[in-house]
Amino acid sequence: MTYVITQPCIDVLDQSCVDVCPVDCIHFEEGVDRKLYIDPDECIDCGACEPACPVSAIYAEDDVPEDQAIYTEIDVLWFQDRDAARAKIPG
Asked: What 3-state class would DSSP assign to 33?
């Protein structure tokens, strides 16, 4: 299991989660991305990021709300094809 960053992060990009991540698995390209992304292969499921997020955008993979489920796919995709992942971010 991993953690997923969902819609509330879009255009906020608060990096409190990055600051507390012990394995540096949260990434984005400054000036390009509209949200942060958690690398599912690097995440150790420690949960430190979830309470650090000021907009409650981070969920354990099994707890992602149904209406935010697309972000699980988007986070994985970003580490394979960044442009394709960015294209899936809603308007």
From this structure: coil
